[in-house]
# Entry
Amino acid sequence: MAQSPRTSVSGSKFAKPFKILTNGRQITIQSNKNIESVMVWTSGGHRVVEDKAINRTDYRFELTIDSRIYFIMVRTVDGKSFSEKIGIR
# Structure
């Protein structure tokens, strides 16, 4: 049975256990596993959000720095890290 592979930051093949929702500059991360930490950077390398010990399946924050491209890293409580690039209009 063939499955389409998805690659995490670490190079292992498995599906991301979360989705990222945007509403203007408000970002919501919904996960089917508890989120341990979230880090967000602008495309210029400025760290916008760094939050640890979240231990919930959802996380919400507001982007306060004006940038069009952001990188989000989500670490789940099982130690797996995922990153995603998002664009804001």
Summary: Strands lie at 18-23, 26-42, 47-62, 69-76, 81-87.
